[in-house]
Amino acid sequence: MRILLIAGAFNSLTQRVFAELTDGGHQVGVELVTRETPLLEAVRRHAPDLVVAPMLKTAVPREVWSAYTCLIVHPGPVGDRGPSSVDWAVHLGVDRWGVTVLQANDEMDAGDVWATAECPVPEVGKSDLYRNEIADAALAAVHSAVDRFASGAYRPRPQRSFTAAEKPGRVRPPLRQDARRIAWRTDPTATVVRTLRAADSQPGVRDELLGGTWFLHGGHPEDTLTGEPGALLATRCGAICRATADGAVWIPELRPPRTPGGPAPVKLPATLALGDRLPPLPEIPAPPEPWDGPPAQPGRPRTWADIRYREDGAVGFLRFSFPGGAMSTDHCHRLLAAYRHACTRPTSVLVLGGCRDFFSNGIHLNVIEAAPDPAEESWANINAMDDLVHAVLTTTDRLVVAALGGNAAAGGAMLALAADEVWCRSAVVLNPHYRLMGLYGSEYWTYTLPGRAGPEAAARLMDRALPVTAATGQRLGLVDRIIDCAPREFAAETARLAARLASAPACQPRIAAKKANRERDEARRPLAAYRSHELARMHSNFFDPDQPYHALRRAFVRKEPAAGTPAHLAAAGGIG
Ligand code: COA
């Protein structure tokens, strides 16, 4: 079928719908729309059989929905209406939510229902929920709606025909800052964490801190540290710890409010954002094997760490999770130190990643944007990423598995490719390219990507700059194993498979062969040669004022809306 996606942004859900429908053999086009887009004209140009809107904040005009069947993906159960559905799901602390695919008509979110899907709501931030459980439900509903439409026989159900039990949703207003306020003196940790998570990653919770107004982004419970409610207690790896009525929370990132006429401020690691305003506080490192599981586990107080290492027999697990998958120079240095430590341990398999949500999206564009000299910071960051990737590539005494519970892009995707095996949850979307940020790219991609996919496919991936599913990644040689499981099962499933890999008779011979392969490759062309070639190109991307990188980065981190459909997407679908 010819399917046109219309969306406000080519966001993660739209990317996944695009990539999965393309895999399914459909011809898929994309139009990014704003209120000003002449939508009928755009849709006519594509002449689609069906229009699908995975993430649309504006209404579809009558002249479009009356001429074409338009399916809207609404991230809420049947009957739910309003622009803050996922925020409400987290804010209310519900344990189940849903997605409804409905037909556009005159009334927003009120059209006939083509498909629905339910999902659990774990204790995670809103964006994590959206990219994982909600996205899984959305894709299930979209596939079934598309199949039903293709059958020609299906009649969507009017919402009024649903019983009360089948239609648990209701109209909900936008969740504004007034409803998100934290009462530090009286709110217990559970309430504070839920409030922070309902606003994570955007818009954050507006609050007063050290005499100024800040938006707080992200929140994790801390059971050991306590103090005067509202007081700052400690720092850890760029995050601040703040006391609640009955405990404390870790807040990883802060954003100042926008000044009138000024550019949109960027979200930064909290201690970096506060800078000199931060009073002297103890930097308290995470305990060994920090616990972030369910509350009230006897003897296991909860705390937060962005990097964790643990062992189970012959397998080491180096887990990391950075907001937005962005890895600053500091994140890279700390992860490299943890990686080096993991390599001193007597294991034969080392699993890198394995958490839910983003694996990595490469260098930290926000930290770079906020640096006194963004070109210098870009340079430091890419060198730190390269050092980390180099350590992975030159690990010859054990097998390294990159385990991607969530998406990876740019240098973050290349970090995964440095491992011996790349395992992905089936829902993962990969963006193995750099061009959209005006970068040539590094992370030894000129060694790993053609090595895995072959030179032609590597060049095509780089040039087309489109997202691919894990399944396509596997077909191209980028992915070795697909783990078809729910987000919450990924860590355990990875651990089970890694234990099997470590105990397989082939494990030790593979380690020996890997060492020999690395030596052979090094003799053919040293890793240093790949790195210096890539970094020469990156140096000019960063330091040549005529290069587009700085303007593209600024637009990305300041969230400037795209002016129409970018050329690489307009050319993507092969329809229209
Ligand atoms: N640096 C800083 N922040 C980043 C980031 C990066 N490299 N990559 C993603 N983020 C942030 C986004 O700003 C966004 O923040 P928000 O939640 O506060 O709005 C969050 O992570 C999620 O990203 P978003 O773009 O909303 O997710 P998506 O799934 O729709 O798209 C990408 C994912 C990776 C395609 C897109 O974020 C991207 O192009 N990132 C830049 C990749 C890159 O060029 N890296 C540098 C070269 S190595």
Q: State the CATH superfamily name of the largest domain.
A: 2-enoyl-CoA Hydratase, Chain A, domain 1
Q: Determine the CATH topology of the largest domain.
A: 2-enoyl-CoA Hydratase, Chain A, domain 1
The CATH architecture of the largest domain can be given as Alpha-Beta Complex
Spatial extent as radius of gyration? 24 Å
- What ranges have pLDDT less than 50 throughout 5 or more consecutive residues? none
Average pLDDT: 96
User: What spatial order of strands do you see in the largest sheet?
Assistant: 2-1-3-4-5-6
Count of the domains: 3
Bound molecules: coenzyme A
- 3D shape: globular
Explain what the structure shows.
- This protein has 576 residues and is of the alpha/beta class.
- The protein folds into three domains: 2-163, Formyl transferase, N-terminal domain (Rossmann fold, 3-Layer(aba) Sandwich), CATH 3.40.50; 185-277, Formyl transferase, C-terminal domain (Methionyl-tRNA Fmet Formyltransferase, Chain A, domain 2); 307-490 and 498-556, 2-enoyl-CoA Hydratase, Chain A, domain 1.
- The protein is 36% helix and 19% strand.
- The chain has 19 helices and 23 strands.
- It has a six-stranded mixed sheet, sandwiched between helices.
- The longest helix has 26 residues, at 126-151.
- The two termini are 13 Å apart.
- Coenzyme A is lined by residues 11-12, 127, 201-202, 267, 324-326, 361-366, 407, 409-411, 431, 434, 437, 439.
